[in-house]
Amino acid sequence: MKTRSLRWTTLAAALVLAGCAALPQPAAEALPVTPAMFKEAEGTRWTEAAPAEAQPRGQWWRAFGDPVLDDLVARADERNAGIAVAAARLRQARALVRSAASERAPQLDAGAGVVREAEPGARGRAATLTRLGADLSYEVDLFGRLARAQDAVALDAEAQAALLQSARLLVQAQVAQAYLALRATEAEQAIVQDTVRTYRDTLDLTERRQRAGDVAELEVARARAELAATEAEDHALSRRRVLLEHALAVLVGEPASQFALPPGPLPAALPGVPPGVPATVLARRPDVSAAIARLHAAQARVGVARSAWFPRIALTASGGVASPEVSDLFRWSARAWGVGALLALPIFDGGRRAAAVEAALGEFDAAVAGYREQVLVALREVEDELATLRLLAEQARAQSRAVAAAARATALSASRYRNGLVSQLELLDAQRSELRNRRLAVQLRGAQYASTVGLIRALGGGWDHGG
């Protein structure tokens, strides 16, 4: 008897140990090789930290010093459809966490019923039985199936929380980039409109000189063609501004027909990137945090699938009253009760449990690959934006010199043209060169703003300590 008892104890211990076996771990070669520092930010090291999807990102857009942008971001936070969808999915995920937690609690059901059935051996005789009672059940989570299932959905909720932060950060960045692009378009259009006025003055001067017999009609035609072409560019910029305004309307959750943004200046201050830009990109980026949570959730689901190989134990209890006569239903003699313990162990399932384990392992491998890809994308995006900002700054300095030289050339050509020392072609070439260089300078500034916002998003928020 002792030997048999020892065997059963050993078997139970083995099952418990098997149920608590270590979950699969990602292979070292499957994870990204993390560099010591950013290539484009010399001397800045980055650290791999715990997920920080709940960490505030701060009001980073205020660094641009534009109250209109501040208002647009606030409106987008409240009304943007993408943020609302992400928030709804987070609410759904948290409800699933509560549902999974309820599976680990005792389950109590109440019921009542009336059954009319034929009595055994009695011809044509039937009896009515009325029942009223309650059933109590509780599954003993001996092998951690329910606990791991709850862990998995809790990690899913963490991933959805991170995705909500990611959606909010994306919308904020899109609002900032669309707004700054709109202001850059307005600044570029102001240059074009100023050039239109200059071309009109040149056309007036050329027409006067033609009437005086100093120039031929060909020069008047050239001046008119240049004026018309520049006016066409002005209309194209107006179209671009309208489309950006409509895009902003969608981002802030308002109908484009009712959304209007008054003209305004391009923000004067371009936020500078400090030399010690934080390198905790793996902790700051919400999409990376979501990838980590998905990986851990897939890991937990492998444990859930493996636990299907082990017995399920449930404790049950029921109590109530039953009587063929409703009048006797609440008599003491009508009481009925029962307690029990149920053990279920599947013997043959045609490979269903093995397939479930393989599916869970496949999901885990996919989550590892997804995490690796997300980290590599994060690092690439930071390097891209750092490199872009560095090269744009160098290009802007060179372009500033080009603008100054072109403006000087235009002034000299205009003076010489008025005195009849140069041809109209030389003046128009100088004016076109100045227009092209001034517009390119504004476009470069707009690109610097867009890349700055892109770097903020790539880092998962602002670069100050609080986000």
Protein architecture, described:
Belongs to the outer membrane factor (OMF) (TC 1.B.17) family. Its main location: membrane. InterPro entries: MdtP/NodT-like (IPR010131), OMP_efflux (IPR003423). There is one protein chain. By secondary structure, this protein is an alpha+beta fold. The chain has a domain at 51-105 and 145-309 and 354-458: Outer membrane efflux proteins (OEP) (Up-down Bundle). Helices cover 61% and strands 10% of the residues. It contains 9 helices and 4 strands, in the order H-H-H-E-E-H-H-H-H-E-E-H-H. Strands 1-2-3-4 form a 4-stranded antiparallel sheet, with no helix packed on it. Helix 2 packs across helix 4, helix 4 packs antiparallel against helix 5 (217-251) and helix 4 runs antiparallel to helix 7 (286-307). The radius of gyration is 37 Å and the shape is elongated.
